[in-house]
Amino acid sequence: MYSEKVREHFTNPKNMGRMEDPDGVGEVGNPVCGDMLRLFVKVKDGVIVDAKVETFGCVAAIATSSVTTEMAIGMTIEEAKKLTRGQVAEELDGLPPQKMHCSNLAADALHKAIEDYEKRQKKDDS
Amino acid sequence: MAYFDNANSTQVDERVIEAMLPYFREHYGTAGLELSHSQDVGAVMGMENARKTIAESLNTDPRAIIFTSGATESNNLATRGVARANKKKGRHIITSPIEVQSVLRSLARLEGAGYEIEYLDVDEYGLISLEQLKSAIKEDTVLVTIQHGNGEIGTVQPIEEIAKITKAAGVLFHTDATQTFMKMPIDTEKVMVDLITVDAHLIHGPKGAGALYIRRGTRIDRLHEGGDEERRLRPGVENIPAIVGFAKAVEIWNPNDVKHLNELAAYVKEKVSERISDIRFTGHPTNRIPGLFSMLVEFIEGESMLVQLDMFGYSVATGSACSSKTLQGSHVLKAIGLPPEVSHGSLRISFSRNNTKEEIDGFIDALVPAVERLREFSPIRHGQYFANTEPEDDHHHDVPGDDW
């Protein structure tokens, strides 16, 4: 059984869809596992000012996508880098054991998006 | 709202419940001794009448019916029981990759014990090839086990033709008819199948009651040791109330129900085709289990569809890996050649005689927005799949750490 919070985030997910002109994009998962995420971030003065996500996956994958973007918005890059799947799952009042990997997926997508953002920054600097 | 998961289990008919009650309240003896006290006699009478009813449904003698706890036990008994009793003749068994787990895992145990299990190919519809079956049979083949109808994709195998081949070759043939029982009757006088698995709970009977038809003269051994019940082939006190309920479900089955089931399946197919793009139907287009509709909805995942439909009160099923405990996708969809990213979007809608077209209309009105919503934020669009297949991205195989 999913928690009420998971069901709520699944029914009314936040920040879903594409972002035009993102500062960083992170893709994780593979179709063989069943979950795929593409997470976009917009960064201003070292702070994530917007995040969007596209998700192919189960209820848990969609809910973690939603809650991860919600948590990420307003975080500094350094704070977002430290976001763990444990925090994501906690924010959703827990996930069934076999669904824990979904929370990892969303946190990883965020980390990859930040990586991508930092790579782009370096390019701009050079 | 409506229940469309009747290939998983059905609602027990009120008449079945009524028929069972006296076997809890009055005839609560066992069926062990015919010359015993009246509680036992009542129980034995109920059970033997039930055996007659089940036998009639397969056009056979009551002595050909062994009651079991259900399809799983019948399939185990048929496969390992036959293998054990015929091992002097040989250790080669032929099956298909789309059998239910109680057949496949029972055969896997035999494989571990030195038996040779051969899996026939299935085509895109899940059909086996009769030619391949013919050439697969060897001198040491003892058993062919091929299901009648597939519970995931609805495909019905040509068991009459299979039986002709096995009969000519002198090989035993078992079919799991759990999904087709009563819907597609098997006349054992005409179809030369040797063992048939049937179950009560998909025809509005109770859970925990099944049977194995065993053609007279078939060499088969028991799997458990115990008393003299079921001609010692299945020791243990029979689940008499459930067996009586099983027979009642058979007795009240109306052959006209099949027409209704076919109409519902055709109706949902028509409506889905009209309203949703990018879908694929699974299983054979015409050789199908009545009332079982199965499809793939592309670009989205089945569990999320299932949960959203459930929020609107509609019960359906999916073969998506995400909805299983082990995160393993459907072995059936894999065997018919579907790539995993497509089979994740599988939905099965299975009807009973209690369902109506109005329920389907309501269901379509819930399904269409569910699909549209999930597609809206899916990263997959028309053939545009992206895949990161490096091991580090293999999230299904990471072991939970200590932090949670």
Output the number of helix runs of chain B. 13
When the domains of chain A are counted, the total is: 1
Q: Cα-atom Rg of chain A, whole angstroms?
A: 14 Å
CATH domain class name of the largest domain in chain B? Alpha Beta
Sheet with the most strands, sense and barrel status of chain A: 3 strands, antiparallel
Mean pLDDT of chain A: 91
Q: What is the strand arrangement across the widest sheet of chain A?
A: 1-2-3
Element-level helix/strand string of chain B: EHHHEHEHEHEHEEEHHEEHEHHEH
Quaternary structure annotation: heterodimer
Strand proportion of chain A, as a percent range, falls in 15-25%
Number of domains of chain B: 2
Task: Give the SSE order of chain A as H and E letters.
Answer: HEEEHHHH
**Low-confidence parts of chain B:** 385-404
Radius of gyration of chain B, CA atoms, in whole angstroms? 22 Å
CATH architecture assignment name of chain A: Alpha-Beta Complex
- Please state the average pLDDT score of chain B: 92
At the third CATH level, what is the topology name of chain A? Sufe protein. Chain: A
Write out the CATH superfamily name of the largest domain in chain B.
Type I PLP-dependent aspartate aminotransferase-like (Major domain)
Taking the alpha carbons of the first and last residues of chain B, their distance comes to 38 Å
CATH class of chain A: Alpha Beta
